[in-house]
Input
Amino acid sequence: MTVDVVIPAYRPGQKFIQTIRKLAEQTVRVGKIIVVNTEEKLWPESLLKDLPEQAADLIEVHHISKEEFDHGHTRNVGVSCSDAQIVVLMTDDAVPYDNTLIEALIAPFSDETVGAVYGRQLPGENAGIGERFSRAFNYPEKSRKKTIADLEELGIKTFFCSNVCAAYRRSIYDTLGGFVDRAIFNEDMIYAAGLLDHGYAVCYAADARVIHSHTYTNRQQMQRNFDNAVSQAMHPEVFARVSSESEGIRFVCMAFAYFLRHGRPFAIFPFVITSACKYLGFRRGKNFRNLSHEKIMKYTMNPGFFEKLWAEGSGIG
Output
């Protein structure tokens, strides 16, 4: 089974270098690491100079402009540069936990019904307790295979898949047409929903681990959830079938128990404020078509996405 890795990059730093090093040491060797870099002038050539030869030889860089970047389109560009049977999508700040990441990611593909597999994200050393809970909530210790039959039990989590670290069977990817070409968010979940609707399965591989977490401000959390809701509003064929709000309520309730269990009861208060910011952003995003251009640009984390849509005369917003 041949495997390539695709990594969209923008101003990559030391985590990117750690990722390349780790990918070169995997028990299952990857054919090449395809980097789709936004803005050639921002590509740090010196960043790669200290890589061992076996790692540097794997890298194939393709540059795009900032105007060309899109969460769906950019990943499609990267996949088009591969002829491997399995294509792994990663972000430039997701660092493999060990040398068995690729091995664990591709193992579920022995089942011919599996079209996508996503890995487990572990918090970084500097992650706060809220971020640690988020990782534990979304990426549990137990693996699971999901089909469309799980929709009633799992709700929106049925479609959950993350391109921070996910592998795709190329033959099915080609059949389904890849990721949506315009995506502000959730290109992975939209693809997973289509895959499930066509009778395939998505697997969560808990043994395929990467270290990946963020420290967002409350404003950034609001913007991120605004964009999340925009993507859901733009794809009712996926998200109108399930409720995101109910999953959000479960997330907050389970956080209380997590903080108490870890002896941090007062962490509840800043967590509630952050959750309120997330919800506010989400509600605004759901109704983005009723907002002015000025407000959308204020609320979004991805202004370029809207600029392109307006320039094309889409009429949204």
